[in-house]
Amino acid sequence: MTDTSAKGSPSASKSTWAWLPRRRSASVRMRLLAIALLPTLVIMPLFFIITAVNWSSRFDNLLIAKVNGELTIADQYLSQLLENSDLRMQALAASADFVDHVRSDDQDGIARLLQVQRVQLGLDFLYYLAADGSVTASPRLVDDRNLARWPVVSQALAGFGSAQIDVFSGEDLAKVSSDLTELARIKLVPTQAAVPTERVEETRGMMVHAATPVSEDGRHGALVGGVLLNRNLPFIDTINDLVYPTASLTEGSQGTATLFLDDVRISTNVRLFQDERALGTRVSAVVREAVLDRGEVWLDRAFVVNDWYISAYEPVTDSFGNRVGMLYVGFLDQPFRDAKFSTILTFAVAFAVIVLISVPIFLRWARQIFAPLERMLRTITRVEGGDLGARTGVENSDEEIARVAAQMDALLEQIQERDRELNRRVAARTQDLAEANRRLEATTRQLVVSEKLAAVGEIAAGIAHEINNPIQVIQGNLDVIRVQLGDRIEDIRTELKLIDEQTHSIFLIVNKLLQFTRPDEYAQGSELHQPSAVMVDTVPLVQHLLNSGDIALQLELESEGAVAINRTELQQVLINLIVNAIHAMPEGGSLRVSTDDDTRDDQAGVLIEVADTGVGMTDAHLSRIFDPFFTTKQGEGTGLGLSISRKLVELYDGTIEADSTIGEGTVFRLWFPCADQG
User: Fold this and answer.
1) What pLDDT digit, counting tens, does each position of 160-216 carry?
2) Burial label, 141 (beta-carbon count in 10 A; 0-12, 13-18, 19+)
3) E-assigned strands of 550-654?
4) Residue 218 belongs to what domain range?
5) Within a domain: residue 646?
6) What is the DSSP track for 336-372?
7) pTM
């Protein structure tokens, strides 16, 4: 009985535990399959779907941003048309011929002159209105009653000229000119998605209504003119050419522009058929409600006559302040949707092909790992059971798993011998690991700062790129204004120069952002500047902050030396220090800014001090003020100002330091070496 029991024990034990390696092997097999297939069949498809959805959303947002910019151009052209109409009326009122006729009260001469000028200026009507509201001379006027009721006209009689959009009823058009009634009449065309209506035609006319005051020899009046925008195809085609020049859209798309009177297209290049414009068609109900009823700007897809367009609508108001129509630009949506779908489909097909090719390869590699790993697991199980003589038996080869198995066998042979030595080394290693951990934590903090700086650099570069686009639009529109004004540009040359200067200033700021992110690519030379003079130019930039903060400024500009430095970068540093000082004095106080010649280590230089009477800083805060992203403003600011300032100061061999006392204030000192002017 004893022998039988003894012989049966190993067999029973083997039978009991034999399943364990297989179960573990199956677990390893499943894990390896998951490692091989999960990224390809699950994670990558999810990543592809998320990326495609995000890209599609960004693509749509880009189209909306594009049409918004195009609406801005159209609005600027309409505003320019109004301004030019006002200027032309002023020029006519000031012309020598007109003044002579008015002084001599030559009504026939005025009528003949106005008839000639109406044709030359492309006006649909032009008349001279006396101060009492009666028309004393007009080449086309049929009925002069109640003309002064228009705000544009009444303001001109009061001495203020302007040009506005006004809507003339059929009766108003008949009073101004008998020809305009038929020219303005547009038959309504039944339009899908529009608000139901019983009207069959639009008899009103949308006018560019301009009036300028006239005052000569005690005679007061107004010169009034207008252009009908109904069926004014050159007007709308000019907008379309400005907004959608050749090759500005993807192949197959088409840009359109429209002027609406209420919700009726009165001037458009949208087509009903190949050569027939969609005059008399109406806007969709949802757009009408948003733009005309609520006064909003529409930036979205919209159904236009017979197709979907990426559309932008804005309300048009008359001289009474009422919303009377809409200005629209847009382009055909389907070609862009086709291009987007084609792109996503191409990536999806490429992804599917990659999956079909890679999965069999991954499975084959996984199978090559199963066998040696299972043998290694069985060996580990035996070792855990106390059999330290267990070995994998896998031959050493160039394959990584085989080499690992062979190394495991070697390690098992050495494990007992090295066990005691390992214990002795643990204590020493523990101390080394603690020191390494401290250094790792310090390195991690530095890496976090580096990552933040890198992120800020990427964001700054992206913002700089996006800002350059509207700068080009502004500059392009300035060129258009110069071309349109021609010889009349002298009247606003100063304003245009100011716009050019401010645009250039924005361009310089963008370059500074790029210089911060890629300083090696945008390095600039330095010029000689006197810090005192730079400070004098800097103070006006922050004067509004000083005034609003009840802060007294003391300027002590005694230095005469010049330093080699970029003027804009020096101003950036000074502005940052002054703004920080203002923020440190929320209850008001005194700000002292001084410059003085100062010699350090036999080197002539200039010392700049910015001292405030603010709340001050603790020693702990003072030691970290130049660290990137460190700030004491609790949610305000980025913590980069002083860090960037120190970088700029050191770039020109200068130094920056600070002293602070709680409750008394803070002093920042900058020192720059004087430039050799010999």
Assistant:
1) 999 999 999 888 888 777 788 888 999 999 988 889 988 899 999 999 999 999 987
2) buried
3) 551-557, 563-565, 589-600, 603-612
4) 64-336
5) yes
6) HHHHHHHHHHHHHHHHHHHHHHHHHHHHHHHHHHHHH
7) 0.51
